[in-house]
């Protein structure tokens, strides 16, 4: 885990000014006051958006300003209010005051919005000041100033992709090529002694976090080399880029390296053995095309795809990144599906669903459903336009224990409850 940070300035729009104006009527020098009020300046909101995973985009743009309201018009016309401005941030972003470092808000949930800078109100035009004592006021207000805030954003990044493999195969070279991370690169084993995460961006909107993990050798699970302690950093990653040295410059066979590494993963934790991987064959610049082909075929024979790349020259790296991103999106969707399924299983609880008086209560999206012959029949038949029907119905539900089960399931005053095809608002 590492922290992504950005500082931004947000400014809400100023309100439009009111104006001084008098009616112009033919044959009359001065009509009554008709200066309109100014419009409101736009607010600035922060909004959590799950499709964004880093704060990278704020490196390019870090000042955000909502539009000002328009000034008032003649004939009592109010100026147009400006649109609000939404700044989308990754879910999990913590927002601090950039000056005092006080925490302002923690954007925890998808879609959560927070008013961070309020737009200025419109100033009043002279019409608003006219009264019986002063029928021709020459007075107006300026629009209020929009708030301005200097913010520090902080996000705990979880790596999506682990870059793993034997020592010296070029893991750190790859992370340096695809992100701004610059770990030490050296032509000896165990150059990297700690994980280095980096943000990999495909374009302005799509990025992911990859982490360069120290090298693993045969017997790592028994403590050889640096051991396998660093594999714990893979517990939250969704897939692996498994690098092998396809040039075999150190005298090892790439396919054998692959097998040994997979075995070390399994030994560490079998769930890691199940993690999807993309195999990258690095250092193709050191060997002939025919040798690359020969190695690729060897992997294919085992049913494995391998991406020939050179972290040094950059050849093949773009398509590796693209493929990684696509697979990652699929894994993210799958994880989301799983989450949803687990949630809905949680919500589905059965209570005495036997016989006439049995019923069950479950949550469906934001509504609650009550199923059961007797309660459903009652709901169907009662004429709810008659005066006493609602309280009678409520009493019956209470007596049967439906109300308390609804409460147990999280229903509150005002919750919508579906019974026998009808919707009810729960009154507690
Ligand atoms: N010719 C060539 N050399 C490379 C390539 N990628 C990495 N190297 C070299 O291989 C050596 C090891 O690279 P690193 O990126 O430090 O390898 P690593 O996998 O991070 O190594 P450890 O941190 O020790 O596990 C360095 O001398 C790199 O310059 C490549 O594509 N072609
Ligand atoms: Mg390294």
Query: Which strands sit side by side, in order, in the main sheet?
Result: 10-11-9-12-13-14
Distance separating the two termini:
45 Å
- The rough form would be described as flat
Question: What is the share of helical residues?
Answer: 10-25%
Cα-atom radius of gyration = 32 Å
CATH H-level homologous superfamily name of the largest domain: P-loop containing nucleotide triphosphate hydrolases
In what range is the share of β-strand residues? 15-25%
Structural class: alpha/beta
Q: Which CATH class of the largest domain applies here?
A: Alpha Beta
Figure out the total of helices: 8
Bound molecules: guanosine-5'-triphosphate, magnesium ion
- Element string (H = helix, E = strand): EEEEEEEEEHEEEHHEHEHEEEHHHEE
Return the CATH architecture of the largest domain.
3-Layer(aba) Sandwich
CATH fold call of the largest domain: Rossmann fold
Number of separate strands: 19
Number of domains: 3
Average pLDDT, rounded to a whole number, is: 88
* Biggest β-sheet description: 6 strands, mixed
Please mark out the parts with pLDDT under 50 across 5 or more consecutive residues, or reply none. 346-356
């Amino acid at each position: 885990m590492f922290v992504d940070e950005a500082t931004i300035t947000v400014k809400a729009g100023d309100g439009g000014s009111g104006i001084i104006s008098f009616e112009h009527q033919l044959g009359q020098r001065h009509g009554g006051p008709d200066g309109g009020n100014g419009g409101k300046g736009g607010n600035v909101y922060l909004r959590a958006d799950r499709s964004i995973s880093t704060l990278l985009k704020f490196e390019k743009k870090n000042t955000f300003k909502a539009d000002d309201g328009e000034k008032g018009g003649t004939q009592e016309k109010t100026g147009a209010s400006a649109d609000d401005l939404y700044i989308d941030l990754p879910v999990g972003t913590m927002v601090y005051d950039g000056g005092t470092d006080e925490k302002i808000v923690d954007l925890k949930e998808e879609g959560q919005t927070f008013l961070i800078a309020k737009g200025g109100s419109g100033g009043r035009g002279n019409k608003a000041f006219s009264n019986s004592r002063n029928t021709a006021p020459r007075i107006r207000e300026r629009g209020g100033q929009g708030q301005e805030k200097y913010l520090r954003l902080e996000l705990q990044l979880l790596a999506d992709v682990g870059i793993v493999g034997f020592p010296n195969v070029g893991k750190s070279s790859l992370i340096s090529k695809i992100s701004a991370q610059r770990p030490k690169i050296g032509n000896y084993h165990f150059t990297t002694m700690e994980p280095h995460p980096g943000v990999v961006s495909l374009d302005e909107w799509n990025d992911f976090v990859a982490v360069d993990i120290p090298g693993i050798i045969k017997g790592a699970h028994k403590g050889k080399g640096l051991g396998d302690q660093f594999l714990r950093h893979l517990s939250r990653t969704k897939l692996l880029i498994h690098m092998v040295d396809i040039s075999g410059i150190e005298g090892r066979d790439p396919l054998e390296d692959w097998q040994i590494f997979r075995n070390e993963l399994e030994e560490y934790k079998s769930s890691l053995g199940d993690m999807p991987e993309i195999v990258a064959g690095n250092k193709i610049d050191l060997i002939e095309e025919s040798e690359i082909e020969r190695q690729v075929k060897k992997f294919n024979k085992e049913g494995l795809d391998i991406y020939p790349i050179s972290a040094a020259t950059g050849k093949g790296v773009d398509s590796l990144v693209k493929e990684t991103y696509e697979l990652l999106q699929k894994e993210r969707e799958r994880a989301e599906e799983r989450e949803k399924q687990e949630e809905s299983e949680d919500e589905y609880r059965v209570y005495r669903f036997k016989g006439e008086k049995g019923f069950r209560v479950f949550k469906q999206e934001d509504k609650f459903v009550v199923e059961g012959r007797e309660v459903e029949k009652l709901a169907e038949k009662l004429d709810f336009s008659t005066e006493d029907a609602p309280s009678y119905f409520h009493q019956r539900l209470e007596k049967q224990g439906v109300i308390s089960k609804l409460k147990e399931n999280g229903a509150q005053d005002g919750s919508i409850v579906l019974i026998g095809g009808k919707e009810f608002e729960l009154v507690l």
